[in-house]
Amino acid sequence: MQVSAASLRMAVLLVAAVSAACAVVRNPALDRARDVYDKARQDPAIVRNAGVALDKAGQTLEAAESLWKTEHDVAEVEHLAYITEKRVEIARVTAQRRLAADEIQQSRTPRP
Amino acid sequence: MSRNCDSNGGIGGGEKHLFYSAAFAVLIIFAGCSTTKPPTDSLARAELGARAADEAKAAELAPVDYKNARDKLAKAKAAMAAERYEEARRLAESAQVDAELALAKAETEILRRAVDQVWKKSEVPPTQAELESRNPLSQGAEKE
Fold first, then answer.
1. What percent of chain B has pLDDT over 90?
2. Which member of A5, A8, A60, B94 has the lowest number of beta carbons within 10 Å of its beta carbon?
3. How far apart are CA B102 and CA B106, in angstroms?
4. What is the DSSP string of A59-73?
5. Residue A9 within a domain
6. What is the total count of domains within chain A?
7. pLDDT at position B119, please?
8. Which of B14, B90, B112 sits opposite A79 (nearest CB)?
C-alpha cells in the first residue's frame, strides 16, 4: 500500500484540527456542573459529612468531562451534567441531615 | 459477489484492505446497536428509588423533586414502550437521581423537625454552634 506524503500530511492536519476544536469548544451545562461541584468541594461541612455522596458526584462529572473530550456527545454530556448537579445537591442535603442527627445526639447527653 | 472472499483466495492487496475496512465498519455499527438495548436495569433502579422516596413521605416533604422523579419515570416507561431506548435510559437515570434527592430531602426534613421538638421539650436554648449548624450550608444551597 502506498500512501503519498501529501495525503498523510492532510490526515495529520485533519486530526490536529479536530482535536484543537475539541479542546476549545465549551459546554455551558458541563461548565456549570463543574462550578457547582467545585463549590461543594470547598465546603468543609459537606466534605466532612457527605464525602461519599460528593465522590459520586465527582465520578459522574469526570465521566461527563472525558466524554466531552473524546466524543462531543452533547445530549449525553448534558444528561451527565444534570446528574452531577443533582448528586452535589444530594451531598449537600445529606450533610445537613448528619448535622441534624448530631444535634439530636448532643441534646441527649447532658451539656457541661 | 462471485469472488471467494476468504484470506487465501485471490484477492489483491487493495481489495483485501477494502474487505477489512468493511468488516470493521460492520463491527462498529453492531457495537453501536448493542449500546441501545432496552434499559431495563436503569428503569428498575428508578422504580426502586421512587418507591423508597414514597416510603419516606417525599411526596409531602420534598414535593418538587418527588414530582420530577415520578414524571420522568412515567416518560421513561413511555419511551421504553415506543422503543426509544436511549431516551428511556436518560429519563430513567434522571428519575432515579431525582428520587434519591427527594428521599434525602425528606429524611433531612424529618430530622430537622425532630431537632425542633427536642429543643421545644428541653426549653434549653441551643448554643451558638448549634444554631450555626442549622443554617443553610452555603451559597449554592439556594440557587435559582
1. 53
2. A5
3. 6
4. HHHHHHHHHHHHT--
5. no
6. 1
7. 80
8. B90
Parts of chain B with a pLDDT under 70: 1-14, 26-35, 123-144
Return d(Cα A18, Cα B106) in angstroms, integer.
Answer: 47
Question: How close, in Å, is residue B97 to chain A by CA atoms?
Answer: 7
Please tell me the predicted confidence (pLDDT) of residue B1: 40
User: B134 to chain A: which residues are within 8 Å by CB?
Assistant: 99-100, 103
Q: The whole model's pTM is what?
A: 0.70
Contact flag B115-A96 (C-beta cutoff 8 Å): no
Nearest CA in chain B to A112: B127
Please report the number of interchain residue pairs, chain A to chain B, with beta-carbon separation below 8 angstroms. 82
Give the number of C-alpha atoms closer than 13 A to the C-alpha of residue A33, restricted to the C-beta side.
27
| Structural domain boundaries enclosing A77 | 26-108
Tell me the residue type at B20: Y
- Give domain status of residue A50, yes or no: yes
Q: Is residue A19 part of a domain?
A: no
Q: Which of A1, A99, A107 sits opposite B118 (nearest CB)?
A: A107
**Domain for residue A14, yes or no?**
no
Q: Specify the pLDDT at position B31.
A: 58
